[in-house]
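Researcher: We plan to redesign the surface later, but first we want a full-length starting point. C-alpha cells attached.
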C-alpha cells in the first residue's frame, strides 16, 4: 500500500512500536534507517537492531586479508556457481547456513528483550518464514541437499523462524528498487543474487503485518519524506516514554528453586504454583535443558537404547568437563540448540513476570561455572573449531542476558549426593556428587538467596519454603 493509504492500528499489549525496514541490497536501507533512527530517538528511547545474517558483509570484510582472503573468495565463487547451476550443497554450506541463522535468532531475541524493556524498535531487515532463501528466510530449506540430520536441523530452523515471524511489526517499510539501480549502488554485489532478492521481496507478506511500499529509485528526499510520514503515523498510536520498563518496578515476582537433582525442586515448585494459584495469578517455569531426561528416555528404547545412551552420556560428560576436548561439531550444535531452547523458556518466564504473575521456576541459569549446574554448555570443554568457538561466544551472550534478569529470591535446596541418589536411583552417583559440591558455590549474579536443608521430608521442606516466602514479603 502507499503511505497515504496506511492507517495503523496499535498491537494489543504492546507499549512501544516495532518498525521494520526491508529491501534488497542497494535500496537505501542504511541511509533511510539512519534518518528514521534520529527521528525516533528525538522523542523516545529507541533501539536499532540489524536482523540480517550479514554473510555477504563477512565475505567482503575477509576478502582483502592476506592468506585467508583468497581462500574465502574462492569458496564464495564456488558457492555462487553451485547456486546458479543447482548443484548439491556441501556440508560446509549447510553448517555455516545454520550457524548464521542461529545468529539471526540470537539477534532477534536481543531485540525482543529491548522491546520488552520499554524501548521502541527499528529493524534493518525482518525474518520471515514464507519464502526460504536470501531474503531473510530459512536457509536450510533453500539448499539442494538431503539427509536425516539436515531434515532435523531444517525443522528446528523453520520452527524458530515461524516463532519470529509471529511477532509482527507495527509496520513494514518496503523499499523497492530495480536490478539496474541496485547494481549501480552496489557494484561489488553478485547480479543474480540481487535479482533473486528483488523477486522474493515482492512475494513477502510478513505474516499479515501492514506493508508500506516506497519506490527507492526516487530522489532521496522523497523517499525519506514518505518513510518519516509512515513512522509518525505509528508513533501517534503509542505514548511517549521518558523511561523504559527496565527502570520501573516489576509488575510480578520471580522465585527460583535451585539445587542438585533429587533435592525436590520440581515437586516443591509445582506444589507452590498450585498453592498460590488459588489467591493470585501464578505460573510454573522450567529453566533446565531436559537433556538428562531425554537421554534416559533414549536408554529405554529396545535393543539400541542402552548402548546409545552410554555413547551420548560419554560425549555429554566430555563437553561439560573443563580441560576436555569438545567431542565434535555435531555435539556443539546440539548443545547450542539446547541453549536456544533455554532462552525461549526464559523469555516466556520474563514475559509472565512483567505481566504481573508470580513465577516459580525449577532451576535458574548461571554463568559462574560453565558446563555444570545450568551454566553455559559450550564454555567448559575446549575446541579449536572456529564454528564451535563462535557458537560458544553467542551462547555466553545469551547467558549474560538471562542472568542480568535476577530473581527476586533464589531458594537453594541443599542435599548430599547419597540422599539425592536414593531419591533418583537412575541418575549417575558421580554426576550427583559433582553437582552437590558445586551448587553451594553459586551466587546467581548476587540475587537474594536463602538456604534450605532438603534432606528433610518433603512436607518439612515445603513448609520451610512457604515460611521463607512469607518472611520476605513475596506472598
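Model: Full-length starting sequence:
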Amino acid at each position: 500500500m502507499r503511505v497515504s493509504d496506511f492507517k495503523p492500528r496499535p498491537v494489543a499489549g504492546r507499549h512501544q512500536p516495532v518498525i521494520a525496514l526491508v529491501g534488497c541490497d542497494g535500496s537505501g536501507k542504511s541511509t533511510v534507517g539512519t534518518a528514521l533512527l534520529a527521528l525516533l530517538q528525538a522523542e523516545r528511547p529507541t533501539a536499532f537492531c540489524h536482523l540480517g545474517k550479514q554473510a555477504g558483509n563477512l565475505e567482503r570484510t575477509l576478502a582483502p586479508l592476506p592468506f585467508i582472503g583468497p581462500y574465502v573468495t574462492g569458496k564464495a565463487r564456488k558457492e555462487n556457481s553451485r547456486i546458479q547451476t543447482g548443484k548439491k550443497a556441501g556440508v560446509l554450506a549447510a553448517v555455516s547456513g545454520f550457524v548464521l541463522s542461529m545468529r539471526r535468532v540470537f539477534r532477534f531475541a536481543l531485540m525482543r528483550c529491548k522491546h520488552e524493556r520499554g524501548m521502541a524498535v527499528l529493524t534493518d531487515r525482518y525474518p520471515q518464514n514464507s519464502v526460504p532463501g536470501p531474503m531473510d528466510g530459512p536457509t536450510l530449506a533453500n539448499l539442494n541437499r538431503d539427509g536425516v540430520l539436515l531434515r532435523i536441523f531444517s525443522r528446528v530452523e523453520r520452527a524458530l523462524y515461524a516463532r519470529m515471524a509471529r511477532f509482527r511489526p507495527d509496520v513494514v517499510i518496503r523499499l523497492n528498487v530495480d536490478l539496474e539501480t541496485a547494481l549501480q549502488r552496489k557494484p561489488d554485489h553478485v547480479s543474480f543474487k540481487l535479482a533473486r532478492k528483488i523477486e522474493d521481496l515482492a512475494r513477502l507478506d510478513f505474516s499479515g503485518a501492514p506493508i508500506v511500499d516506497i519506490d527507492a529509485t526516487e530522489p532521496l528526499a522523497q523517499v525519506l519524506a514518505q518513510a518519516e510520514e509512515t513512522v509518525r503515523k505509528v508513533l501517534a498510536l503509542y505514548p511517549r516514554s521518558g523511561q523504559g520498563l527496565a527502570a520501573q518496578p516489576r509488575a510480578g515476582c520471580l522465585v527460583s528453586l535451585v539445587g542438585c537433582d533429587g533435592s525436590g525442586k520440581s515437586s516443591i515448585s509445582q506444589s507452590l504454583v498450585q498453592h498460590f494459584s488459588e489467591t493470585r495469578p501464578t505460573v510454573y517455569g522450567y529453566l533446565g535443558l531436559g537433556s538428562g531426561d531425554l537421554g534416559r528416555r533414549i536408554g529405554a528404547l529396545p535393543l539400541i537404547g542402552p548402548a546409545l545412551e552410554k555413547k551420548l552420556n560419554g560425549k555429554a560428560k566430555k563437553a561439560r568437563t573443563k580441560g576436555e576436548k569438545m567431542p565434535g561439531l555435531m555435539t556443539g550444535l546440539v548443545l547450542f540448540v539446547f541453549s536456544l531452547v533455554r532462552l525461549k523458556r526464559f523469555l516466556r518466564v520474563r514475559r509472565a513476570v512483567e505481566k504481573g504473575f508470580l513465577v516459580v521456576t525449577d532451576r535458574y541459569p548461571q554463568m559462574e561455572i560453565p558446563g555444570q549446574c545450568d551454566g553455559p554448555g559450550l564454555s567448559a570443554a575446549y575446541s579449536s573449531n572456529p564454528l564451535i568457538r563462535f557458537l560458544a561466544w553467542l551462547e555466553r551472550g545469551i547467558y549474560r542476558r538471562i542472568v542480568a534478569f535476577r530473581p527476586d529470591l533464589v531458594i537453594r535446596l541443599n542435599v548430599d549426593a547419597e540422599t539425592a541418589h536414593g531419591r533418583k536411583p537412575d541418575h549417575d552417583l558421580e554426576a550427583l556428587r559433582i553437582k552437590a559440591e558445586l551448587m553451594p558455590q553459586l551466587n546467581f549474579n548476587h540475587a537474594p538467596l536463602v538456604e534450605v536443608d532438603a534432606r528433610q521430608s518433603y512436607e518439612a521442606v515445603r513448609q520451610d519454603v512457604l515460611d521463607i516466602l512469607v518472611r520476605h514479603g513475596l506472598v
